[in-house]
Amino acid sequence: MPRRPVKTRQRGRRWVTRAGTLGSVPPKHPQANTLRTRITGLVRELGKFGVVGGIAFTVDFVLFNILLSSGLETLTAKAVSTIVATTIAFFGNRFWTWRDGEHTNMARQYTTFFVLNLIGLGIALACLAISHYGLGQIWPQLQSPLADNIAGVGVGTVLGTMFRFWSYRRFVFRVTAAPAPVSQ
């Protein structure tokens, strides 16, 4: 059956069906829809953050190996590749992941971003140090390359990434606008 528009006071126009037909059922709990919207937005944000991080990681890895093969010293190569990858991550997060965030002073934002990135790196290094040098003194198996990769790349990267996501949202790219209302 054809539907006709009906004007209500609270919501403006809303489509309803004629008597005797089934229409959409309004949600019993309005907060459920808000929660679903927030979770969907967070998942979308995490996805974008992951894509940007994956691209930055790839740039870091490839550039580091190119610089090493060209004869650059190891620490200099890593410093250059890290700075380039961090800059790519900054611009990707600023203009894509959190494009609706607060963007007042790019130099301050980049500095804060870089410092928080260093803290995230410190978390990964701390996990590696605890495993290799601390627990490795008790259990020598934790000083193997496999254990170092699990502690540093696995656990350390996961914890560092969780910290980065939280801190970038909280301190670097704060969203000041209220979320768009949900239309039904």
UniProtKB/TrEMBL annotation:
Chief place where the protein resides: membrane
Pfam families per UniProt: GtrA_DPMS_TM
Stretches that traverse the bilayer: 46-68, 74-92, 113-134, 146-166
GtrA/DPMS transmembrane domain boundaries: 48-173
Key words, A-Z: Membrane, Transmembrane, Transmembrane helix
Topology in the lipid bilayer: Multi-pass membrane protein
Compartmental location: Membrane
Organism domain of life: Bacteria
Family membership noted in the UniProt record: Belongs to the GtrA family.
Protein name: GtrA family protein
Organism of this sequence: Actinoplanes subglobosus
